[in-house]
Write a structure and sequence with these properties.
By secondary structure, the chain is α+β, with helices and mostly antiparallel strands. It contains eight helices and 23 strands. The strands form four sheets. It has a 16-stranded mixed sheet that branches. A three-stranded mixed sheet has the order 20-23-22, covered by helices on one side. A two-stranded antiparallel sheet has the order 1-2. α1 crosses α3, α1 packs across α5 and α2 runs antiparallel to α5. The protein is flat.
Amino acid sequence: MTEDNQRELAQKLLKKYLRGECTPDEERIVNKWFFSFDDEPSLPMAESEAILGRSKNVLLRRFEGEMDVAKPNKKVFVWKRIAIAASILLALTTTVVLLQKKQTVAVPQLAAITPDTSGVFKNDILPGERFAKLSNERGETQLLGKENQAEDIQPTAFKGNLKLEVPAAGTYSVVLSDGTTVWLNAASTLQYPDQFADDERRVKLVGEAFFQVAKDASKPFRIEVENSVIEVLGTSFNVNAYHKEINTSLVEGKVKIMSQGHEAYLSPGNEAIISVDKIRVQPADIQKNTAWQRGEFVLEGSSFAEIIDQIARWYNVDFVNAEDISPNSRFDGTLSREVRLSEVLKILSYTTNRKFEIDGRRIIIR
């Protein structure tokens, strides 16, 4: 893009703003630019907005070629801004380009439908990928793709209580303010503050996540899941809360489970199954329960329903006639989550002796 084109885009953005036609994102950009010229101590928001409002007509006339003969306002620094208004084109040039780039970062087509190269299916589907949406209490959002690093997802504007949402066919990891790393599986949401309170570290989870909690004996780490609370001091564990029963599998450390007046403690290698009226502790298949975090589907010891549940979330598909497969069927082996859906279905077809058809995002079992 040439400098003249950038200048024209910046001018159009300012005019659009002055006429009240900007989107919220565009309005924030112009507001931020306008007040960036202020050397005086910051004013209350209400007064700042009033000052900006009184300046709009003057700025608009300047950019439409009219001579301004208005008398100076007592707020000298406002007229200082207007005096340098001609520089807005240069000041906004970079901002407009960045805004254009931001607007082009749309939600990617996760697990995209693609032509089938084997000649067996109507179409194929690519695997999911790293993607999430971060939002704050003001409704501002940031889309996070595979090019973002975990430490990049908290820009200055994102303060207070945050929500990280991972859609179906997505996965994402985030490093919290205390150094705890959380990996989120597909169709999962994590709510957390940008800075933890002095007495505890508390987050809220929907879906599935693997936690590697930073040690801090003076500040317990607590996870709210449905009507339960999982409390740790420093440990690695997996929480699966997709269904009514919540599964917590402990890799290392110690975990305390509290639910509906019940309490239980986990030691490494065990899992807690939290249901409505009880907590059941039993030995866990850690490799199976944490396979998704390593990029795998572990079939061994899983029912067909469990397997297609994982596949449906990762490839964003629906299975038809799944009830025809015996719920008691068990499978062996490990599959990569990085392959196309057709490769996964070929293995399932072999082990079940059934035919799987891909029709868009519907998987029909024959």
